[in-house]
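Input:
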Amino acid sequence: MTAAQTPGIRKIVYYQEETFLENGQEPAVPAVRATAAAVLANPWTGSGPSADLAPSSESVAPQLARVLSDRLIDGLGGAERIEAFGKAAIVGTAGEIEHGAALIHTPFFGNLVREFLEGSSILCFADDRAEAGQPLVIPMWHKTAAATRSHYQTITTRIGDGPRVDEIVIAAAASTGPRPHPRIGDRSTDPAVTSAILEGANA
Amino acid sequence: MSTPRKIYTIVEETLLEGGRPVEPAARVAVVAAVIPNPWHGQGFVEDLNPGIEETASAIGELLAPRVVEALGTTVEAYGKAAIVGLDGEIEHGSALIHTLKFGDHFRKAAYATTLLPAVEKRGPAGIVFDIPLKHITDATIRSHHQSIEVRLADAPHPGEIVIALAAAAQGRPQQRLAPLSTEQ
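Output:
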């Protein structure tokens, strides 16, 4: 990996958490969660609110998808081990949230991450405009069955010196399993709940 | 040693610095474990040796191979950290990392000879800390003086300690300072 192969990317940070104990007990299915985040020059710095974002989105986003997916796959031991995923953007303060959206919310990023991580679900996401060092909580859900409640989880990513005002941080996140002790049922076990349960309750 | 609650692995690659390419990309890796503070809830413990004996070597042995593997190449600079949760003393973190029993595992894994530079700090979960790194065989090699900033979500809790090792594959990106010897 060299700068020449990834124009505009200044830094790539891989962050992984492996949980051995939660509330004092080993998870039945120990999951490893990770984020891969790249900080790159905002391709649209200085452009106006009606600038066409498509050309740079189509040239930059696929490379980000490749670079970030590769690190998640390498770090977590293969796409087949990944069960949940998500994505995120942090735009430096000279940019628009729309700039981050242009890099994560088009098929040129999302479709490729989904393909590389062997998923089929929509990727859930977070975005923000912030100063360098701002942590961002990235939501994840199951990569092929988004409503799988045991896999609703998050991971927090952060790059200490990014994004600068004219940069964007783009991140992908993945988990190899569910929350440590999932025990809140699922749609198949839920009772029918309506506002009728509030009847008679003190307001 | 008690089982760590979590182990964190961070790999930072720098591809551009000062607007110029860094080739090959500069790599720094950190591996951190969050463990129960061995002295938590015991009041002021005068003799820390039993806790050191129980924990220091084991945590060094756990972390050293992981950080070398995460870096994925020869280690040229290294450092260590102890971040104590709010209920503990800085001395508790120092006790676990400032002993040869801890550091020798990393020195052996990295083929290193120098003492490990360190940060010791007390704070809440999610505190930001910087791990200093120096060259593994000659701590005066100026090109390799560097640090890496770390933040671990959710650690350390008040009764816990984070113990971390950092490894770099090279000196600073775009390092260009004259060596110490030119000033002597």
